[in-house]
Amino acid sequence: MSKEVVGVRRLYDALGCSVTDGKGILVKGDIAGNKNCSIYLGPNPPLGVLTIEAEQYGIPGKNSKIMSTNASYESDCFLEILITMELEVSEEISNGISNKDKEAREQLLCEIKNHSNLFEKLIDSISGIIGLKLHRQLVLKPLIENSLIISGPEHVSSFIGPVVEMLQPINFNNKVEAVLETYVSALESIEEDVLAKAGSVFHWLNKAWRERDPVAKFIYLFIPLEAILQSDENIPNEAHNNIESLIGLVKKSDSNDKEKLLSFLEMTKKKYGPNLNARFEEFARKSAIPGWETDVAVFKKYNRMRNLLVHAGRKDIQSHINIEEETRTLEDLVERYLSVAFLGSHDVYPSRFRPERIQSA
Questions:
Q1: What predicted TM-score, i.e. pTM, was given to this entire model?
Q2: Which residue intervals of the chain are DSSP H helices?
Q3: Are 2 and 84 a contacting pair, CB within 8 Å?
Q4: Each residue of 28-39: b (16+ CB within 10 Å) or e?
Q5: What is the Cβ-side half-sphere exposure of residue 196, based on CA atoms within 13 angstroms?
Q6: How confident is the model at residue 163 (pLDDT cuts 50, 70, 90)?
């Protein structure tokens, strides 16, 4: 058996962004045990540029293209995330790769697909962290995702491309390199399954970031937040107190079914777990973000709206509220609490479009 280096890279147009010295920033590290990570931010991605795209965003001072297929796509700045690993292959395939054999290449590219789910989760996790801590505009527009054969006399790839929001101009200085190095260094100590689980959550945040329909975006934003609100067997204090009150009333009653009722209520205390509102309130209380009490009230409102949209099929809800404004507020809330859950801080990227947070009285 031989080993060949394969991987998956995702290329983003870092919309409205630039690097001060214009040379680009490249950070590398080991992640998930036996895999390598490479992050590049700048004008010249190491693996080149190829796009199949439909324009969805507007950048101040630039014309937007409706549709383009372009091998020389131009942008001031790209973000390239590459995950690679070694795969064991037969000597026949390895020799074929060395000899540029088409059939050997196709077989190995097919083998990469067996690992595509993990590759995607790892890239989603990294892009989510970069989006939260540097800026979401870095990961708004994926241009292409390649499966790659890195070893051999030349790189070989297979790819697919993606199918107007007004953005703001952003400039990154050399301090970004130290920030990226910090996060890549931290990733080295995280187990593969933990990072993969984080990627499953960040996958939905990335999807919400890219979604232009405000109702769909509103619904998508709930998924990553609900995923971090772990449930347990402890019931909310209010529910516990209500059950205790019922137990007291039953004990004082003359009902013939008193024992059965008491047994039922005791069983209810064990099985009646906290609902989503209670789980968020507990998480917000422990996080202690300034204004968390207001966040709790806002979340209850948004959860009711989500239930009307999803469970009751109330499409007419848009006629009663400003869904775009509400979605921006929910997005801010979700970003901050995901940042707390995964990165230990509620600080996220600055944006002039971010709604002002209302502090609790």
A1: 0.71
A2: 91-98, 102-113, 116-133, 175-187, 192-210, 214-228, 237-252, 258-271, 276-287, 292-310, 323-343
A3: no
A4: ebebbeebbbbb
A5: 11
A6: very low
Residue 125 has pLDDT above 50, yes or no: yes
Q: Which of 352, 26, 36 is nearest to 174 (CA)?
A: 26
* CA pair distance 144, 69, nearest whole angstrom: 11
Residue 290, classed as helix, strand or coil, is coil
**What b/e readout covers 46-66, taking b as 16+ CB neighbours within 10 angstroms?**
ebebbbbbeebbebeeeeeee
Helix (H/G/I), strand (E/B), else coil: 278 = helix
The SS3 of residue 43 is coil
Give bridge partners of residue 57 from the DSSP assignment: 165
Q: Determine the Cα–Cα distance for residues 69 and 287; give it in Å rounded to an integer.
A: 46
Amino acid code (one letter) for 232: D
Q: How far apart are CA 101 and CA 335, in angstroms?
A: 47
Give the Cα separation of 25 and 21 in Å (integer). Answer: 10
Angle at 61 between CA 59 and CA 64, to 5 degrees: 50
CA distances from 108 to 91, 93, 96, 112 (A): 12, 8, 10, 6
CA torsion angle 235 237 239 245 (round to 10): 130
- Percent of all residues in the chain with a pLDDT value above 90, rounded to a whole number: 49
DSSP 101: -
The β-bridge relationship of strands 67-70 and 51-54 is antiparallel
For residues 231 and 217, what is the distance between their CA atoms, to the nearest angstrom? 24
Q: Angle 175-187/116-133 helices, nearest 10 degrees?
A: 140
CA distance 17 to 170: 5
Lowest mean pLDDT among 57-71, 239-253, 265-279: 57-71
Name the token pair of 307: 């239930």
Residue 276 pLDDT > 60, yes or no? Answer: yes
